[in-house]
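debug: dumping io for the single-chain case to check the tokenizer round-trip. Nothing else runs in this session.
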Amino acid sequence: MQHYDLLVIGSGPSGQRAAVQAAKLDKRVGIVERKVDIGGVSVHTGTIPSKTMRETVLNLTGWRERGFYGRSYRVKQHIEASDLHERLQITLNHEVEVMQHQLLRNGVEVIGGAAEFVDPHRIRVTTRDGSSTEYSADHFVIAVGTRPHRPEGIPFDGERVMDSDDILEVERLPRSMAVVGGGVIGIEYATIFSALDINITVIEARDQLLSFVDTEIMQEFQHHMRQRGIIVRTDEQVEEVDRSRADKVVVKLASGRRVCVDAVLFCAGRQGATDSLALENAGLAADKRGRLAVNEHFQTDASHIYAVGDVVGFPALASTSMEQGRRAARHALTDEVPRALDNFPLGIYAVPEISMIGRTEAELKAAGIPFESGVAHFRETARGQILGLHEGMLKMLFDLEKHTLLGVHIEGEGATELIHIGQAVMELGGTLEYFIESVFNYPTLAEAYKVAALDAWNRLIR
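debug: decoded output
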């Protein structure tokens, strides 16, 4: 039986980063992947495909130029599903190649097959041909990710009623679509397909979309959604999806409303892919959504078994998953106790993007922390005018007395890139004065930081 210092189950961002980190500590590392290609959900059905699709849509539609040439402007007049698939495949092939090379040059052994625990220190890996081999390890990292949750009673067929995996294989673009679920994935796909001039209706069971986002930012974002004709139905429960008609799918809501569309996309959360791991043999159990509970070091109830990435729940981001994997490996194999992973940016790749770090206005009010805000609209900057931006804003929140930066919230072009300036300043304890006294390249969207800081400065009592 082959023995490893660390065995990783799953080759997504968190698993790969855990394996590479362990290899850099001169440990014997193996990574088990049940799919033909490595990369996990992130590469094949999640982060990379959805963001590639987004970029393809924005390029082919000429979305970024419509501020100058109008809503009817298009780079390609007739966009087909095959146009989206072509670029997607090129990107995925490249990502898999890069990952394979990274694991190879770091000496990580890739084991193909489906893993299940035999006991707390052994797993059995079964290959596609049915043969199986047992492996043992001092430590394990479970990084199996998630799959779309499929509510019971919904007639999924992969063509007219789809989940977020199916949408990547769609053969014909619909003229109208209902997106069930107003979370991050639902909003991303709703706005991406809206950019293709597909009529979109978003159905959300809660009373608001993306409730964790700053209220002012979400008001601005939803205003842009309405301007584009996206219909939002909040506080609405789906009772039935009827696809008996040959030409349409009818979504029946508890309120009595009917939504008649060409296709339905369900984004009803994610389910941890732990059901095949025989967790009980390792003394572990997942919750009803297949997720594992961990402590601040990402240890499960079995201290030598770690879990990282989407399978542990919030924040379920590729960025944080990578860091979780790295920290889990270091905690398992060294005496290091990494500091808590508290302050990290969130990125929502909708059209337009949303990104944030730190606290929202609502959180500061609830905590009784006096603050002042500053806002800059991208159209106020020269770069915004050059790009033809009619939307987009950057908002900063400062401590009223110390002037330290407490939060940054951005909606608009490049938000997920711009957020890192605010992140660096927050991590280093910077203040409002930093933005006022610093020089930013001109013309840039980053200049909005200075505009927002001056806006806050003008309201301070000095």
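debug: round-trip ok. The mean pLDDT is 95.
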